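Students often ask what a 'structure token' actually looks like in practice. Rather than answer in the abstract, let us consider TRAP transporter large permease protein, a protein of 433 residues. Its sequence is given first.
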Amino acid sequence: MTMTDLTLGLALLGGMLTLLIAGVPIGYALLTAGLAGLVLTRPLPAAEFLLSTFAHSASAHLAYVVLPLFLFMGHMCFSAGIGHRAFDSARVWVGSLPGGLAITTVFACAGFAAVSGSSLATSATVAQVAVPRMLREGYSQAIASGTVAAAGTLGVLIPPSGLLIVYAISTDTSIVDLFLAGIVPGVMTALFYAVMLFGWVKLVPGAGPSHSIGRTSFRAKARAVVESWEIVILFLIVMGTIYLGIGTATEAAAFGAAGALAIVLFRGKDRWRIVWRGLIDTGVTTSCVFLLVIGAGLFGLALTTTQVPQHFTLWLTHFDLPVWQLTVVLLLPYLVLGLFVDGITMMLLTLPIIFPVVQHAGINPVLFGILVTKCAEIGAITPPVGLNIFVVKNTVPEIDLLQAFRGSIPFVLVELLIIGLLIAFNDIALVLL
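Now compare that with the structural description of the same chain:
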């Protein structure tokens, strides 16, 4: 190993970041830096051969089949109005509590997250119905917009999660284990959000009405569950197939996509237009993800050749930190990067460097995947990017952006608390494994 190799690796990393700052799309920035590294570290014939085969070898992974299938399932559920029915059903159960409409929004997002796999889709779907109702009933813009944006992040934690799929393939971690590990933290996050909203409305004057609709009968609650049959059935199909060992994650994704398609066809209204639009959107999103995967793979190969990850691992483990402290240190870059890039980009940028440290230190890769996903949730609701906040603003234009970001602050604190609990008590995430 020579200093020249390390210097080259750091130069590639700096060049890629420079391209990002210059506004080059992340996929092309990764490809450019990776291609440069490939040419500079190998003879030209070897580089040409590797380049001719790399795109196929990086993307022709059977596990990637689940990504377009779950994306299609999410598009079908979005178009079928499942999010609206989840909101109506959740309100029957928790609407009588102080801050009940905000708490309803949290559980509606959790329900839709179980069939969408996307935080942006979850926020956009529930925002359409939840934010206008909350504003009409006296909730502040901060609590209305912050609740939808933050609860929407459950879409990347509660399975099926597109972010967990990308992490699984990037690190060769079991998708099934990650999905199972996301359930308890996802439910816990929803419950913590609900408790925080209850206290927010009770303790902060003007945040929202301290009373809501009257109590509902058990029969009405049972009817609400029946009316949300699509969510229940799809979640049971997907997770039941995986947890009971009936099939693999790929087969579960296929069953889920087929079930969502059947729901759209059963609904009847504009069904063929919805299916066609869903196929197009799924294809576009999948193509974008594959560009990122191929670019990140090429860039990661270049960094590995120059031994940047190995040097980073040796340097960090030299401090001989306890595992929990090392975990905190490894999560800090994700908390910072989350302010500027989306979760998938953040993972693909950092995992080639950070994951070798995770393996060397003996940190459970499933637990680390859940923790990184929690960091991505924070990034989705914090400035300057805060994609979920902008989705809510785009869906409900009268929302003031500053108020929306203010409304997300209590949720960020809750997220940090949960991350701390997961680090301290690993079994919270791993109990179902």
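One point worth highlighting: Residues 62-267+306-430 form one domain. Ask yourself how you might have guessed this from the sequence alone, and why that guess would often be unreliable.
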